[in-house]
Amino acid sequence: MRSYFYDDYGFIAVLLDGSRSEHKAANAIADYFLSRLKQLLKLDWDTALHEFEKHFGRTVPSTQETINLLHPLPGGLCNDARLHAQGVEELERLVCEVADTEQTDLVQRLMCQLDAQRLQKRQLLCLGSLEAEIEVNIHDRVSVWPKDSGLPHKVPTFNASAMEGVREGTASGSLEFYLLPNDHARASTIIREHEVVYVNFDGELGDEQKKQLTLLFGTRARDLKMIEEQEANLEIVVADDAIRIVRAQAKKTAPEGIEQLYRWLTTIPIEDDRWNEAAQKLSSGGFFRLCDNDGDFIRGLSFLGVVSSVNPDKTEIAELARARGFDLEELLRQAKALEAATGFPTIREVDGKIVVLV
Amino acid sequence: MESLRPLSEGLACFSELDSIPGRSDVLTTPMMSTFFNFGGLDGSRTSDEVTRADGANLYLFSLLFRARQDPDLTQRRENVLAGRFPMRYGGHLPGYLALKNIWRVARQSSWRAND
Q1: Residue A19: in which H helix or E strand, if any?
Q2: What is the structure's pLDDT at B50?
Q3: A49 vs B113: CB contact, 8 Å cut-off?
Q4: What is the sign, positive or negative, of the torsion defined by CA atoms of A37, A43, A47, A49?
Q5: Distance CA A358, CA A351 (A)
Q6: In A133, A180, B39, B69, which residue has its Cα 20 to 30 A from A62's Cα atom?
Q7: pTM for this one?
Q8: Is residue A326 part of a domain?
Q9: Coil, strand or helix: which one is A355?
Q10: How far does chain A reach from its first CA to its final CA, in angstroms?
Q11: d(CA B108, CA A42)
Q12: What ipTM was assigned to the predicted interfaces of this complex?
């Protein structure tokens, strides 16, 4: 599912299509997304997944020599080869533009450098960060002092050896934790203002890769601030442009349109004309309202969902349920009653196995 | 982005609450991350030793088996199911329900969609 949408070069082609402007571009993006969802529900899953597994993890390098880009193969998830090729071309054009270091305009060049750096950061997943006072002492030890810890005595959250060449001193900064999913690695780092004073990697990474990643860590706070400023500037630019009318209209109508789409997707299992009533209830009061505000049923359904994902055996689930204060037979009865009243299925019992559908 | 957000949230919830490794040759990125981040620290053997001896799937399954029996995870699922539907609340409920429906459609037509 992730690859179906996020590795879809057809989507990239529509997003970066310069030939459409203003409301035509917005409509084209919305139409494409809807058509992809409809395709998904009619997909020949067996063939598509077989192709996907066969090509999983395989990439093709970019045709442009100036950039280092690897395109994942569509592997059964793309049904428009022409649009896919156009998406590859459009993405390479954009990356070439961002990577162009010979631009004469200094501001433009700096902006491109920052964009390029931010693109590289997509390989990093920040799991969490703690704002703190960062001290490096004369013995090259770095200490993370929490701000306003509420404790009577100041105790450092973390101590470690500082990186080589880091100067002594104290300033605001942060302790940050990263996941590098593509490399199956983790990193923890301490930033003092914009300087990386400590970094530790867990996982098999080369020295050059560690060096590159260390450079990226130091700029997170600056990047976040810059994105904030760029968004504010964009608001000003849009306010002075004719596109503001299209944007205002999209902002007004899009949430309802998106919600309508998800009302349809969430009520697909209702086979008769009661889907609309169920969709209205979901929309106005969530699943809670659809279940007649029965919190106990939702709690029981939540329990059944997680345990049946790893062990669907009805007898064993019934035992576990008893131990946790749930009555499996009563939950099954409630699920049947809900389905009879609304058409919305929640639990199925097949050959002594429990299958939870929500 | 607004249209995709519920799907992204739904995928995240699905990985946490429903997904298990199965017969597929492909291990998803969240499963890979789970394996490499929890594998080496669990028990006396390293991830490498476990992979060589049992394969990643058995190890992941045992990790998930324990996690899914945890009352905290039931609570997390309850929070998703009892959430609000409109997009301004983050889209977790519509995204999760939509994902489960798509998964159901997929599983009805191919065993490959089981994991």
Answers
A1: none
A2: 62
A3: yes
A4: positive
A5: 19
A6: A180
A7: 0.85
A8: yes
A9: strand
A10: 17
A11: 12
A12: 0.89
